[in-house]
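User: My instructor asked us to take a sequence, write out its structure as tokens, and then describe one feature of it. I'm not sure where to start. Here is the sequence I was given:
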Amino acid sequence: VQLQASGGGPAQAGGSLRLSCQLSERTTWRMVMGWFRQAPGKQREFVAAISLSAGHTDYADSVKDRFIISRNTAKNTVYLQMNSLKAEDTAVYYCVADGTLIRSSWSMAEAYDYWGQGTQVTVSS
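Assistant: Let's start with the prediction itself. The structure tokens for your sequence are:
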């Protein structure tokens, strides 16, 4: 299983960016995909997750109402639309996937078996 992420880059505070992540194959019908991020000197933190089949979503409080996670099931691709960006959103964003998670573990980094390469998002104020 491979994850190919794209879409990072620089942005102005208040602006928008969209990240994409394509999954090479589903291992189960219960695949969950999502995003974590890690800023310099900080721990990796959960951003958002979505179930590929039902489209259920979960968000970190810090991004709720600003970020939207969505999926294209035909392409096994998830998107993270990031709006109203803030300087504190600056981080390396990692796409993740797993086929065995229960919803209560979606925000736990150690629960995900598959990680993509990180993509840098830099927001300047």
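For the description part of your assignment, you could build on this observation: The radius of gyration is 13 Å. Try explaining in your own words what that tells you about the chain.
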